[in-house]
Design brief:
There is one protein chain. By secondary structure, the protein is mostly beta strands. It is 0% helix and 46% strand. Strand 34 and strand 35 form a beta hairpin. The radius of gyration is 28 Å and the shape is elongated. The protein starts with 29 loop residues before the first strand and ends in a 7-residue tail after the last strand.
Length: 714
């Protein structure tokens, strides 16, 4: 049975560092089937064709290792699988019989053993030989610990609080089974010469004692008692590299509960380690690997974040310091990361074991395209809607998410380069479904309004002026508010709110007082079960009108009266279950047009209706869009013509429909994002004049950011 991971909270110093000039970018992940419950990966050229291959441990009470052969373009093909012990959790590559072919060593958690599979050099392996180790082994490391020229194996035995050492004979068999004490519950292990004596030592991450144990090797396969160094809370992974360029091995440790990476640099004398410095790593880091992702010759780090289905890239400056991580979506149930050069270019690529998806995801570094670089950032639970604004007046676009399962909004402040900081949450009403922004008290700061579906109210959060927000003030509206829009409806200079109430089939108007407060809701009937609302001057009279998308297969067009208030709605049939709409000029004639998403699983349709300028619309032009229920309009390719982006909840992707002029659209590329994309927002996240995309991914509890790299229009 697997160890149950306990989550605790601890405060550790996180060192701020400046932004680095070098960058690293990754294509969206490509998933390849990898057997049931892949939990660990090792990289090696098993068939000697010059391309890296993969060995994948299929855990979760399984007993297989899957072999996947690589190719010149980073594509992997499953070659076969081999039986090992029960519940394999770690795998390593080495030549254990000195025949020049790569072999495998696999740690089996439940059967307390190590399986050795000798390679033939063709990509196939002989049947496993099994060797007993201690209770609940979790990790292994390889090295020649006794100086006889043969590879040995060191295994971290979680339940026994020790390391088991198996000494290699040179023919693929092992002797020994020596035990050496560690801290409490060793969870990861690495090898290096940490005292500069030319003999390999062991570094062990101890999960429940929050330490790293250094076991100095004697050169005969035995080790001295451990020296202990403090790290973050619940260290779960460890790697060795020279992070500051002094020629001495340093350590990086991923800490699960404290959500950071501890860096332990070698001392100047090379005979010990300095005190740990901690750097943010994203939520619940599970695995850690080293690579040069931006090809600058300095070691970088990649960490898997278990709670957000993402990896975080920490680019090393070469001094031992690391910046805030840049996140990329990596697949559903990501648990382990490894690195290699999978397509033969100058940069290191990444492969991730996605346990829940029964696949591995390969992220190739540094290639081009319009939106090649998807980055994932954690949000609260169930992000359902988002809006953009500069909340802290730093000139960078920020994000606000309505987290429907958390009853909060998440604020992600932008860095101005397409990346975002970790979220800060503010409580609102129950079941927030939609969020809009505006300056409701006319103090020059952008405030937030949220439609709270379960509590039938709207929450107002006033900006304190620095990007933080005061406690929410709530206003009652109709039943189950699900859509929200903002406009000055009565021309008094104050922003008002329009709320689409699903169950009561009304729109509630909250007129703003200009000081951040609002009057009692005034209700107007619309079609049955409105799901979305938008505001525009549809008939050209200078007054703001509104339109709702209704579950009853219609849109309601509600024109403003010349004095005050609104006329009764006009119902317009557009398609099945319209869920989202945009009101804007799509063909450049100065009249407001309509773009509507009509939802049907696998058969959603985008309907484009040209406005006549008098409150009426022409017949729809329909475009098939898969399984979509949301859209956003923006000029993504810089040609001056509006484009449309839609989500695809079945494929976990976004599709860009490029405008051709005259409100005609052509389906474009499909970009992978997080699981169950629910809402989109477009904005200039890099301050370069290009519209990038942010996508709220409901099931993976993250926002995926697609950075626009389109060349400037000629």
């Amino acid at each position: 049975m697997r160890m149950k991971v306990l989550v605790s909270i601890a405060a550790l110093a996180v060192y701020a560092v400046p932004a680095w000039p070098a960058t690293a970018t990754f294509n969206a992940p490509t998933a390849f089937p990898a057997g049931t419950s892949p939990v660990a990966i090792a990289v090696g050229d098993f068939n000697r064709d010059g391309f890296p291959d993969l060995a994948v441990a299929n855990g979760n009470n399984g007993n297989q290792v899957t072999i996947m052969t690589g190719s010149a373009n980073g594509v992997f093909t499953t070659l076969g699988s081999y039986t090992v012990g029960s519940d394999p959790v770690a795998v390593a590559v080495g030549d254990f019989n000195n025949d020049g072919n790569l072999d495998l060593a696999v740690v089996n958690y439940s059967s307390a053993s190590v399986s050795i599979l000798l390679g033939t050099g063709t990509g196939s392996f002989q049947a496993a030989l099994n060797f007993t180790v201690g209770k609940e082994p979790y990790a292994l490391a390889l090295g020649d610990f006794n100086g006889d020229g043969n590879l040995d194996v060191a295994v971290a035995d979680f339940a026994d609080n020790n390391v088991a050492v198996l000494l290699g004979v040179g023919n693929g068999t092992f002797t020994g089974g020596l035990r050496f004490g560690t801290g409490v519950n060793p969870r990861a292990i690495a090898v290096g010469d940490f005292n500069g004596d030319g003999i390999l030592d062991l570094a062990v991450a101890n999960y429940f004692s929050n330490t790293v144990s250094i076991l100095v090797g004697k050169g005969d396969g035995t080790f001295h008692p451990p020296a202990t160094f403090g790290v973050g809370t619940e260290p779960i992974a460890i790697v060795v590299a020279d992070f500051n360029g002094d020629g001495k091995p340093d350590l990086a440790v991923a800490n699960y509960a404290s959500a950071n990476v501890s860096i332990l640099l070698s001392t100047a004398s090379g005979t010990g380690l300095q005190q740990a410095r901690n750097y943010a790593a994203g939520s619940q880091p599970l695995s850690l690997a080293v690579g040069d992702f931006n090809a600058d010759g300095k070691p970088d780090l990649v960490v898997v974040n278990g709670s957000s289905n993402s990896i975080g890239i920490l680019l090393g400056k070469g001094t031992g310091a690391f910046p805030q991580p840049v996140s990329y979506f990596s697949g559903v149930g990501s648990v382990f990361v490894a690195t290699g050069n999978f397509n033969g270019d100058a940069a290191t690529d990444v492969v991730v074991a996605d346990e829940s998806a029964n696949s591995v995801s390969v992220l190739l570094a540094g290639s081009g395209g319009t939106f090649p670089h998807e980055r994932g950032y954690p949000t609260g639970a169930g992000p359902a809607s988002m809006a953009i604004a500069d909340f802290n007046h730093d000139g960078n676009v920020d994000l606000v998410m309505a987290d429907s399962n958390l009853s909060a909004v998440s604020i992600l402040l932008g860095n101005g380069n397409g990346s975002f900081r970790l979220p800060v949450n503010y409580p609102v009403g129950n079941g927030p479904r939609f969020v809009v922004v505006g300056d409701f008290n006319k103090d020059g700061h952008t405030d937030i309004a949220v439609a709270d579906y379960d509590s039938s109210e709207v929450s107002i959060l006033l900006n304190a002026g620095d990007g933080s927000f005061r406690p929410a003030v709530n206003y009652k509206v109709g039943n189950e508010p699900i859509g929200l829009a903002v406009a000055d409806l009565n021309g008094n200079g104050n922003l008002d709110l329009l709320v689409a109430n699903y169950s009561s089939s009304t729109v509630s108007i909250l007129y703003g007082a200009g000081d951040g407060t609002f009057g009692k809701a005034v209700d107007y009937p619309v079609g049955v079960n409105p799901q979305f609302i938008a505001v525009a001057d549809i008939n050209g009279d200078g007054l703001p009108d509104f339109v709702t998308a209704n579950h009853s297969n219609t849109v309601s067009i509600v024109l403003a009266k010349s004095g005050a208030g609104f006329n009764r709605p006009t119902e317009l049939s557009v398609g099945t279950d319209p869920t989202c709409l945009a009101m804007t000029d799509l063909n450049g004639d100065g009249k407001v047009d309509m773009a509507v998403v009509n939802f049907e699983t696998g058969n959603s349709v985008l309907s484009v209706l040209l406005g006549n300028g008098d409150g009426t619309f022409g017949p729809p032009a329909d475009y098939p869009i898969g399984s979509s229920d949301y859209l956003v309009v923006a000029d993504f390719n810089g040609d001056g013509i509006p484009d449309i982006a839609v989500n695809n909840i079945t494929l976990d992707s976004v599709v860009i429909l490029q405008g051709q002029g005259n409100a005609v659209f052509q389906a474009g590329l499909n970009y992978a994002v997080g699981a169950d994309p629910t809402a989109l927002a477009a904005g200039d996240f890099q301050n370069n004049g290009k519209q990038s995309l942010a996508v709220a991914a409901y099931n993976s509890q993250q926002v995926s950011v697609l950075v626009n790299t389109t060349a400037a229009a000629q």
